[in-house]
Specification:
6 copies of one chain form a homohexamer.
Chain A (H helix, E strand, L loop, with lengths): L7 H8 L4 E6 L13 H17 L26 H18 L3 E6 L5 H16 L11 E6 L4 H11 L9 H10 L17 H7 L7 H7 L14 H24 L4
Parallel strand pairs in A: 1-2, 2-3
Chain lengths: ~260, ~260, ~260, ~260, ~260, ~260
């Protein structure tokens, strides 16, 4: 069930059955020679919709713009500042809380959103925490999960692409977009990527990259250690299939957490 | 050409031919008994895409969340504060300027966005205006146009629905969403709306509504003087058709404005 | 009755008779070869005071600084950023609400204030709308009316000056300042202005101008299509006279709006 | 010379003779049983205009709203938050710098403005200080002087009223408003005030008061240790006369400070 | 009793005996040829700890970063913007209020903090003042006292160093750091300082300095009219000894102020 | 070498040898029945100082306040909002950049700082990334490393305490504070903690806790799965010893990263 394609009486009815919602969050940034600008937003949205459709969970409108300042030297990247994304998340969540939602599960497609999203949650909770009145405690709980945190998907990524998966503009994410938008598949030749060191994963995971000029100097065609020319729609479908049961289990465990 | 479904080299190539872009901007808010929450975002996006596809203009990712605080008493509405939307627009435009875009044409689907968007433009220009150096003048120009400003569409709205068009949750906007998402057409019975006074249009146009409790008190099912049960996908298609030539002419005149 | 020239017990007494107030809002910016920097502030204040004096309505202190970034290339212009004006309006209105005022009528003299003022109202209402508690609904209602929205004044402007009225540094606004400050009338020779196209009114109305360097390039002496050398104090007095009944009727209708 | 009543060519001409300007800054807050809400703004403006008129110094538009949160329990007080006043001062000064002004002298009428104004100056300077490029050093210098800092005025205040001068709603400031607005003189009987301790002056000088409910509890009619029933327009004129030579000497010394 | 070195149950127990706390606030900025970057933070902390230890008052964690933009041209200075320090103070005080503290006494070591701290207090109070509900009045009271405001210390400073005390990088403040950190005493030869005029004290007291390039131009080795080569640890100990009784008396008078 | 205990000429000399600095960042929050409020700040500072002393690296002043809103229901916790910590980090880093520092290594002691610190880095980089001029690329690089990310320390934590280490108020962090502040060791009896599930580590690692009332409900004495009664100063010394070589190697690799 998509919030965007629902009427308000339908949302009202949903709220009588559940206080939970899944919110996809992505990015609009370069994804290498053949990846779509919207790759991260599409991945998050497709996974969320597949899960929501299969299990009757409401899926909120996708937050399509994320924090991608390090990709600004590649034409087409549209980024928010971290503090802007925090404001967007704050207003979005406060809107949901206004309607009675209590558990907001962000399905994330972009590493650069992890820090600002978690910082935004801190300030949402802080609004309640600074108030001395325990009786008025907020029922709100937020969680952000990136789709590559799921074991099954990760194993499949490795099985499909090994070291060619890389860290950005990966064949897996491109594959998911190919499954979703078959008319927008781009065929581009590209060289084999250089291998990333384990240290690179440790230091720059979660897109902890420097500024845009640094970034393009190191990764001139936008890929980070990946070979997205290997992507296929079929691989995208397999990734979506393997993700849905993991996402729904995770979401349901989140809903089932006990209440103080 | 959709930025979201392009690669960065494709955007780079586009920039060699044009410095202009169309950015749809909508809202996620209740649209009466049978209107979709995403109505305003869908209308803006559909009109922009129809125009961009027909005339080779790049269409940026839709700003789906707008300022809709007055609808928060209806479940499902997700609003930004005006200052948050201003930050989103600022970052979005600054990203485009980074790539060399100079004329940003916002195709708007929601009255509540007009004030914050124009205020955001003022502050973007102010960044340049406060600098004393004339040589470093910014080439940026922004324009926001709401689709109901176009004569042809307005005449058609009146021809189709007369006074039943109303001000919010109108049959015309619902019709456009029906043309775009035929699987999401909702059939709901509803009473004939009360007529709005000319004074109401004058005072509350541009969604200059009060807070959410005021608003729902006056418009308990979310419609403002409209009968969206009259919407049909066919009417939506006609509206899109009549809009494209007007939008492209307006956009091209914007691009052709002379340069100081 | 001017708030500025009242004592607090006098304001307390006023509040027992009315919850309404008129707040003039203007700008400090160039107004062409013979117009005063304070033109917009003076116009708003004079109209508000004439109305308040005639009808016993409290007039708050004038917000003299507005958003006029596009005039910064002309010496003497003092502008606020849009977000600053929004903060000023927010604090001003919250102060009034603290005392029990419920209806705040902004009498506006500057197009550049329309967007930020309406955006500020949205965020003031949003503070209430985000709260779920309907019982605690805010009674606050704000309205901004620019004096050129009144039919009578507009007809008189046209009768007096025809196309020479123009869009900025108009003979009408200069005339009002001449009526108010006869010692500050400036006599300056100037060429006849170029005519503005209808498209210019549509696209740049509400002072939707670009940055300061753009603006001065197009309008090198600060006028926009106007001939303010035609202004006379007598015309200013006639405009004030014709405005008062329209303003008071509009204000009283605002006070008389029903309550949710 | 008043900026507000000048044209832009007049300001342009002034800038060829001087880079300095005087900016009055006041407050809109209760001033006891017979003091006007605008007392602080009027005092600052009158002193600045008397000085500017006598000595050909440009006087900018008065910042009429200051930080007066502690007076919000008295009807009519309109306050800015400190951070809002800082934004107003920042934009005002940056506008002046855009035109070539280098020395901005704030003539202050309200203790509650001292902290935020000086904090605003710090952040204006910080914009330059954070930049490493010494060549691009900012020529901007700001100074805030409250009119009661001048020896001559202080002696006269004491000679006129002794301990009845008090700290707020003083007979001296009310006298200045009576000289300026003789039609707005209010005659109200009031009890003799309680005497303030030296510790009160030390701890609460600069309006370092607590919140509004604290403040009204301690000073239920709004006066702080003063007897403003003693005010006369004649005393106001004497204060203005004695202030002008001190203000102009101070201002000229500020302009004459050497340049790094 | 140091909050930093306490457990939460110890703080809980303290709160049953007192609602007051002392918070040291300093700066990290150059202090001339032989002064430590942390001089202001050390002085504030040492005085607060000496007082707290002697009299059983809880001492909160030191705010070590202050507003020192004017010293940024000297390597090692770390400054906050005024608005950042205001946010730090706001969050700190709101945390204390959450636990039941009602009187927060800031012991200050840096002139540049006075304006932003007092501005921060205004906005903390404003949060309460804007609320109309008198019953919910905030019990919070804040005070900032700089250690050089105490008579005894000032007399001793003068007795020890006369005019060589100066305004910044004074031998007295350096002496306190020498008493506290004997291992970090630096011996540096330096010329006798130029004498400051009384006007300099009046205009630049409270660190009302211009930007960093201005500042270093006037004071190339960082001292302002002082000879810190005269500092001795013994003098530092004497200053601490003479300060403690004055600080505790002042603090206790603050706690004993009556309650509205 | 401690920046706080250095003079500005000493910092100037250091900068001729290195562009790198280590900045400890901690928190002031409850750490269970026997842990100090300052535990996280002390751990970060001790590790940084031990490293800096052994290897001649400059250590900046500790950021002692972090984001700990979830601990506000325990007396003594002092938290910043995430957006405030971001502002502190921004100003701190910009101060360092002003002096020529290019690589800023944050040694972190508190999970709740990870998200806001990385978000702050994003916005610092964004300031450069939004500028189109590649020649003016910023040399700034920031890294945040939490001390429990080091393999050696983690192994030792496990060897020393096994599952009793837990997630907050761990015996290891308490041990480090005992080594640093032997006079502040608290002996408190406490029950064995409940075991945490692996899911708890996954979902709440990096202190992704909900608000303060939630948090205290689940962990009523402040510990999260830990037995800090097992802490000893000796264990603290061992942890410090094992950390220094890992920190310095990591820091030096950071300095040695190549330059775009």
């Amino acid at each position: 069930m998509r919030l965007a394609l629902s009427t308000w009486p339908e949302v009202e009815a949903y709220l009588e059955t559940s206080k939970g919602i899944i919110v996809p969050i992505g990015s609009m940034e370069q994804h290498g020679p053949n990846g779509l600008i919207a790759t991260d937003a599409i991945c998050a949205e497709e996974i969320a919709l597949a899960t929501g459709t299969a299990h009757g969970v409401l899926v909120g409108p996708t937050i399509t713009l994320g924090v991608a300042q390090f990709n600004l030297d590649f034409p087409g990247t549209v980024t928010l500042r971290a503090e802007t994304l925090m404001a967007v998340i704050r207003d979005y969540v406060r809107s949901l809380v206004r309607h009675g939602f209590e558990r907001v599960f962000f399905l994330n497609g972009h590493g650069g959103n992890i820090a600002p999203a978690n910082a935004a949650f801190q300030d949402l909770y802080a609004d309640a925490s600074f108030r001395a009145d325990r009786a008025g405690a907020s029922p709100l709980r937020c969680r952000l999960r990136s789709w590559w945190e799921y074991e099954g998907a990760n194993t499949l990524r490795h099985d499909l692409y090994g070291e060619d998966e890389g860290l950005h503009a990966t064949p897996s994410e491109v594959a998911i977009t190919q499954a979703a938008y078959p008319d927008a598949i781009k065929r581009v030749e590209m060289a084999k990527p250089a291998r990333l060191s384990p240290g690179y994963y440790r230091d720059f995971g979660g897109d902890r990259h420097y500024d845009a000029v640094h970034h393009r100097h190191w990764f001139p065609d936008g890929r980070i250690g990946s070979d997205p020319s290997l992507a296929t729609p079929e691989a995208g479908r397999r990734l979506l299939e393997i993700l849905v049961p993991d996402v729904i289990a995770d979401y349901e465990a989140f809903l089932a957490e006990d209440t103080p």
